[in-house]
Amino acid sequence: MPKVVNYEERKAEIIEKAKALFIKRGYFNTNISDISNSCGFGRTTIYQYFKNKDEIFYYAISETLEEIKGKVETIVTDKDLTIVEKLKKLVFELTNEYEYNHVFIIVAEICVILKMENNKIVNKIKEYFQEIMDSINDLISQGIESKEIKPIDSEGMAETIFSFINSFIIQQDSYSDIDFKKRLSSLNILIDGLRA
Question: Which residues form the HTH tetR-type domain (predicted)?
Answer without folding.
Answer: 8-68
